[in-house]
Amino acid sequence: MLFLIISVIVFITIALFVPKKLPKSELYAIALFSILLGFFSDITLDLKYHLYGYFNPGVQFSGFLPILFLFPSSGVLFMNFYPFRKSLGKQLLYLFGWTVFCLIFEYLSILSGYFYHNGWNYWLSAVTYPFLLLLHLLHLKTFRIYLQKE
Prior knowledge:
150 residues; 5 helices; mainly alpha; 2 strands
């Protein structure tokens, strides 16, 4: 639990104080989308299929901490520094770097005891993280299209 609490404090602090490259409306939309994506993923993969979970099987208040605090702050950080105007190679490298970061963080979360695998594994995570990160990009692109139509 200590690792989770420290992680929440560090992620939120960095997300709040890092120089922002995106408008507040986009950062807000990214944070909300991250929460929604976290709930959808975890309800499906954790609660329905029991592939992984937080602390113990089932629903606990402490299991909401990653979804409500880590996911939105990491989503904001990922999107805030995304190299939109760089080459495709740099964008893919950025995506790969975040995937590696997520895998390392997942490993540390398992070591700390607040996260566990139950049929899930790091290979599945390695395939899933880029997909989830790309969903963030697709969401932001869609959000920007809707903003232009107003």
